[in-house]
UniProtKB/TrEMBL annotation:
Protein name: Tetratricopeptide repeat protein
Assigned keywords, A-Z: Coiled coil
Record bears the keyword Isomerase: no
Organism expressing this protein natively: Saccharopolyspora mangrovi
Alphabetized InterPro entries for the sequence: TPR-like_helical_dom_sf
Coiled coil: 211-238
Source organism superkingdom: Bacteria
Highest classification ranks of the organism: Bacteria, Bacillati, Actinomycetota, Actinomycetes, Pseudonocardiales
Signal peptide: none
Pfam families: TPR_12 (PF13424)
Length: 343
């Protein structure tokens, strides 16, 4: 059972899930130029959109998914339209546009229902689940993640199984059930390894490293992140690499290596900014403020920085991140200085 990249369609279907994004983009551009049918062109434009999204070239990704949607619509092909909408919704989530992401992904799922591509429907629903999860809707999205896990197992889709396991693991980790989360991340890593899904394995290793760090094994956590980082660099997974580095900052912070953590967070902020990933950038900035506070930054500055981040998270709909900022304020500034009415 080997993982396939369902988003690479038509003449690009032979591309491995582990193909570097540079290779995907090159082949997609060639297929787009040589396309003789609307569906071939829609598939090529979709692959261009996905490669550019993952490389952080968000403006081109935006143009490409919209072009793919228009091409699929003109051809009257529901599956092509659904895949393009899924790509657009995923890009919207990456850019912090959560309301737009929900709208596009809901449209993608409804459009897929009119067609015959079951995988497009699954990916659209998975996108909705992930969007809700990163916003902090853990109860609602846990049910959807578990539903999609059952469907993926029944359909024999290891890559989708890995994704669902990792999402469920993240929810258990946020609820404090670290043993269950570690078991799920470990299962995801094993399935990804067996199916040669290097992307899924890299994300699973990041989750395992997080929990390993929480158990106090700092050096093992850093080794796991270094392993995952190698994959991210080989495949040019820019967003995954930035999140890997943010986790490295988290591991160092928990180990009270605050100066090292501060530098990692600074570098990671630049990475997220470069690929237009505002959620990751703000989370890295939260880590930076916490590291500075532990090294003697003035309480007034820490207070102001955390309040600004809390406002930013709240206004963008990242409810769990807002709770993290409030918890950091309580811990680092002091309960007596927390003005809850303004939060």
């Amino acid at each position: 059972m080997h993982a396939k990249a369902a988003e690479y369609r038509g003449g690009l279907a032979a591309l491995s899930v582990n193909a570097s994004l540079d290779e995907v983009l090159e082949q997609a551009e060639q297929h787009d130029a040589a396309a003789t049918t609307a569906l071939e062109r829609a598939g090529a434009q979709l692959a261009i959109a996905e490669a550019c999204r993952r490389l952080g070239r968000v403006e081109r990704a935006e143009r490409a998914w919209r072009a793919s949607y228009r091409t699929g619509r003109d051809a009257g092909d529901a599956a092509a339209m659904a895949w393009a909408l899924w790509s657009g919704g995923t890009l919207a989530r990456q850019r912090g546009r959560y309301v737009f992401a929900h709208r596009l992904l809901s449209h993608a799922a409804a459009t897929a229902e009119r067609g015959t591509d079951r995988m497009a429907r699954g990916y659209a629903l998975a996108g909705l689940a992930e969007t809700g999860r990163v916003q902090g809707d853990f109860a609602g999205t846990l049910r959807l993640h578990e539903q999609l896990l059952g469907e993926a197992r029944a359909d024999g889709q290891p890559r989708h199984v890995v994704w669902a396991l990792e999402g469920i693991a993240q929810i258990h980790r946020h609820h404090g059930d670290h043993d269950t989360a570690l078991a799920l991340f470990t299962e995801a890593c094993e399935i990804a390894t067996q199916g040669d899904d290097q992307r899924g394995r890299a994300w699973a290793l990041r989750g395992i490293a997080d929990l390993t760090s929480l158990r106090g094994d700092v050096e093992r956590a850093l080794e796991l992140l270094a392993d995952a980082e190698e994959t991210c660099r080989e495949m040019r997974l820019e967003a995954a690499l930035a999140y890997n580095h943010k986790m490295r900052g988290n591991v160092l912070y928990r180990a009270a290596r605050y100066a090292e953590a501060e530098q990692v967070y600074r570098d990671t902020i630049e990475e997220f900014t470069r690929i237009s990933e505002p959620r990751g950038e703000a989370l890295a900035r939260l880590g930076l403020v916490k590291s500075q506070a532990r090294q003697g930054a003035s309480p007034g500055q820490v207070d102001a920085d955390l309040r600004a981040l809390h406002t930013r998270f709240t206004e963008s709909g990242l409810h769990h991140a807002a709770d993290m900022a409030q918890a950091a304020h309580r811990e680092l500034v002091g309960q007596e200085k927390l003005v809850t009415a303004s939060w």
